[in-house]
Hints:
Blueprint: H1 3-6, E1 11-18, E2 23-30, E3 34-42, E4 49-55, E5 58-64, H2 69-82, E6 90-97, E7 108-109, H3 112-120, H4 129-142, E8 147-152, H5 162-165, H6 171-175, H7 186-200, E9 207-212, E10 216-222, E11 225-229, H8 251-259, H9 264-273, H10 276-281, H11 286-292, H12 298-321, E12 327-331, H13 332-337, H14 339-346, H15 358-362, E13 376-379, H16 384-398
Parallel strand pairs: 1-6, 6-8, 9-12, 12-13
Antiparallel strand pairs: 1-2, 2-3, 3-4, 4-5, 7-8, 9-10, 10-11
Helix pairs in contact: 2-4, 7-16, 11-12, 12-14
Amino acid sequence: MHPLLINSLIMKIITINSGSSSIKFKLFDMPIQKELLSSLVEKIGEDFSTILTTINNQKSITKIKLNSHKDAFKLMAITLKENNIKQDDISQVVHRVVHGGDFFNSATIIDKKVIDKITELIPLAPLHNPSNLLGIKKAQSLYPNAIHIAIFDTSFHQTLPNYAYRYAISNNFYEKDRIRRYGFHGTSHQYILSEMSKILKKNKPNLITLHIGNGVSATAIKKGKSIDTTMGFTPLEGLIMGTRCGSIDPSITIFLAKSKNLTLDEIDKILNKESGLKGLTDTQDMRDIINLSKKGNIYHLAIEMFCYAIIKQIGAYIATINAKVDAIVFTGGIGENSPFIREKILEKLNHLGIKIDRKRNIESKTFINKKSSKIKIAVIPTNEELQMARLAFNYTKDNNV
Length: 401
């Protein structure tokens, strides 16, 4: 076992989510699962970067120019030092990596082979994996004595059966190019599974988990395993999202290319960054859309479309699980904080015996269903960083690293 783990009953673990212009990190004491500090650095490389730091539930916002991720990581180290956390106090640094292909199904210690594989997968996640790699390399230089572990968004969905993850295109595209459904938001869905298992006092529950935020995905979980999920080869597939269109007729892209003389990059930008709620309403903020929808205009239609897609998916996943569903769980920024959207979705499921308690829903209680509801309905705030820390800690413990 690593000497740092032997010499300390409580391990300090940093979780890092490195994006193209942002870095989110948290510091945990494990295994007591206490969050000591968190910081979100945004707008790296712009005129002014914004740093939101939370220590002991006290939040502070700072604006400073950070030219690069290197500067942001140096600032992270300074923040830790100012809070009496030394470099050698850090036992593990846990990195979020968006795409692990079908090579990684659990937490993985990062070595050269893992870095090479993440690099190889860049074509499958060109917006994310390069930033994740950059974060890994910078953190490794700052914390050379810590164990660095990768947690992949795709890992949780590696239990999908082949009939759920394959696409009906030529076998060559799967066998040679690995084109298949991978699924994303896996760490969030896995965290919800972990929390619901404790709440329901059931080790392997059947759940439909709904991560509804700027990104939106649903997962069918049967006997504690992901058996289907809405995001696919990329996070573009599936439900309507903040700026992503979700599933559409693939021929639309061909039509746009020919009729509008658009390049593939232009179409990619339209579908990923200018569609979804933003494409329909010019804003991706559901709070604004709800406020403006009272006039009965395009904002109202956007909400109807958004909820309709989720309603259809819940119905499909009830059939997919093909057994008693223990709970439908809402999480993510919208799922956790919008009683209006939750009710809009659930009121269309009355015929399935699903009954919402409006008072509990407005108060965002853990369970928002009536006692007579045939399926429990829960609202659970997600905590992907805590799940990352849990997975990394358990991996090193179970493998005697």
